[in-house]
Specification:
7-stranded parallel sheet; 8 helices; globular; 37% helix; alpha/beta; Rossmann fold
Length: 226
Amino acid sequence: MEEQEKSDPEDNFPEFLDWSNAIEVLEKAHEQGIFVLVIGPKGTGKTTLAVHLALAFIKYHNLKIAIIDTDPQGSLGQWFMIRSEKKLSNGNLTFKTASLWGAQYESKSLKKDHDIVIIDTPPKIESDARPSIEAADLVLIPMAASHVDFWATGAIVEIAKKANKKILVQINRSNQRSKLISKTNDFIKSLDILSTKTIIGHRQIYAASMGEGKTVVEKQRKSKAY
């Protein structure tokens, strides 16, 4: 794990993200239902990040979580189906599918009896994501340490900023020793947005656990995976 400097030290919004203490990123969840939009470039691990957050909130904080799949590819639905077929525990976890436009209505309904609502988005969203972004309390953007991701992330940040939303970037699927990490941090700072302190690596256990309908927080019991 590699720590990054805070983008804005005077901002009172928590920046630390770790599966065992991810609630610090969403402290408002104790006060009211939260709608989190997980959105980002293709191949940055949006679905993996979304389900790991969901199961971490359930396992470590006993929260009731709803997760909405808006990606036509249906990766999240496949994960949930495998999980259900294996009769793995889905207590406190609700799964729904919706279009990006329909997710806005669905999330408002789910917020009535869930602590946190997480929506997983497709790679190409453009203007279709505006309703979901406008309804979100937090726009969480995973991105890899890659110039290609820099270009794609900038457009998403612009849409979220226009909607005046809280934005948090998670450096994901990246080698913390990569020379591009410092450039990635500089890029995030240039956008004047917050990032988490934790860099999540491109670990095989993430893909392996998803294929089994699980998450790292369930599969790896003795140590943390980053």
